Amino acid sequence: MFLRLASLFPILALLPISEARPASYAVWAADSGIARGQGNGLANGLPTVSYEHGEFQWGLRLLYELTGNKTYFNYIQAGVDNIVFPNGTIHGDYNFTAFSQDPVRTGPTFIYLYQETGQAKYKTAADTFRSQLNGQPRTAQGQFWHKLMYFNQGWLDGIYMGEVFYTAYTNAFDAHNTTAWADITTQFKLMFDNTIQLPGASNNTGLMYHGYDFSHTAVWASPDRGHSPEVWDRALGWYAMALVDVLEMAPPNSGALKSTLLRILNVLAPRIRDAADPASGVWWLVITQPGRALNYFESSGAAMYIYALLKGVRLRYIEDRDGSIVKAMKKAYNYAVENWVVDNGDGTMSWKNTVQVGSLSTTGDFDYYVSQVVDLNDLKGLAAFLLASLEFEKLDS
Ligand SMILES: *[C@@H]1O[C@H](CO)[C@@H](O)[C@H](O)[C@H]1NC(C)=O
Ligand SMILES: *[C@@H]1O[C@H](CO)[C@@H](O)[C@H](O)[C@H]1NC(C)=O
Ligand SMILES: *[C@@H]1O[C@H](CO)[C@@H](O)[C@H](O)[C@H]1NC(C)=O
Ligand SMILES: *[C@@H]1O[C@H](CO)[C@@H](O)[C@H](O)[C@H]1NC(C)=O
Ligand SMILES: *[C@@H]1O[C@H](CO)[C@@H](O)[C@H](O)[C@H]1NC(C)=O
């Protein structure tokens, strides 16, 4: 049924979106990204080892598994072959000794390709990331630093970049390593404990600040706990996606990993629901400062929450007894397709309103976040929309 509908999609896509929705926004988003050459391991023609490519490939893999359409698999493989030499060396802009967690997010695709093709180069490349994690600098509590240059700093983003790979690798090659399972659990838990807004915090949403500095010395670090000043929508989106993706992969013998992540997810999910703007149903870029001048509804974070929460409910990780979480995610999704999807009229769609970056490299304050460039077809947002659409299209109605 899905394939038959999908084959109608080019005709439907010619109609204005208000008159007819395409049979699958997931297919449309994926095909549009592919048509633009996005997420193919290259940037300006040069190899790049980029987490957003890894995120897009994760969505293409799920779409491949759903449709059986080899186009998606081949695109993933060609993309990885742009950054992994035949001898398994990862090239392009990857720098092992920078100890950045960001490039590691391409690793799950390496493992997947190894499992599907048996080609040793993909395993060799995955081993390189695994050994990076073995040397990754840590805080005294054990949290991975986001990068070597960010002393003692844990960022929510890093959980998606590092732990999805760490889990996929351990699951595939090292499933009896109890130290590794405990370490993954620790990464999620320390990040949560050190960044969660506590009762009494100003503009309290009960959500997680963007990051923390264990040494409390960064300019943005709060004197009491070392956390950054604001809840940034995409940082929390990365963390939320990591929760459900890791839960899905974690085997029964992974120690306290599942119970820890389930507890965190069930704290966050209703709070994410409640933090949405009541009228639109979507989230402010800076969630802690709703309605403030220059703040706006940002599209990548929203798509990430929709994916994470719908997937969490579908796989019964999240208790949604009254259906209010699914209802809220449907409302957000409808806002997204009506406001952020553009029909280009040539068979492709574009995705609006994704902020290009959000970093704790400077002040981490409201003025910083709202001053960042908003992009059309930013892959971090487009890939998240692909993921959100895959989940939305699995709903019964
Ligand atoms: C697979 O997907 C591509 C891209 O959407 C499409 O052009 C092609 O027709 C699809 N193939 C099949 C067998 O459905
Ligand atoms: C892997 O192949 C690349 C490209 O040929 C080469 O530059 C690199 O030195 C090789 N690495 C090893 C470890 O042999
Ligand atoms: C790799 O990262 C290290 C540590 O940040 C840095 O000293 C080195 O210059 C980087 N190498 C390249 C080629 O950029
Ligand atoms: C198990 O995981 C730990 C933590 O990542 C690591 O230090 C160790 O090398 C791993 N053991 C094996 C046998 O790979
Ligand atoms: C709380 O939110 C309001 C409304 O967005 C904003 O004007 C104010 O600056 C925020 N306060 C703090 C301490 O962030």
UniProtKB/TrEMBL annotation:
Name used for this protein in its record: Cell wall glycosyl hydrolase
Keywords: Hydrolase, Signal
A biological process term (GO) from this entry: carbohydrate metabolic process
InterPro entries membership: 6-hairpin_glycosidase_sf, 6hp_glycosidase-like_sf, Glyco_hydro_88, PolySaccharide_Degr_Enz
Upper taxonomic lineage: Eukaryota, Fungi, Dikarya, Basidiomycota, Agaricomycotina
Entry's Gene Ontology molecular function annotations: hydrolase activity
Signal peptide: 1-20
Pfam families documented for this protein: Glyco_hydro_88
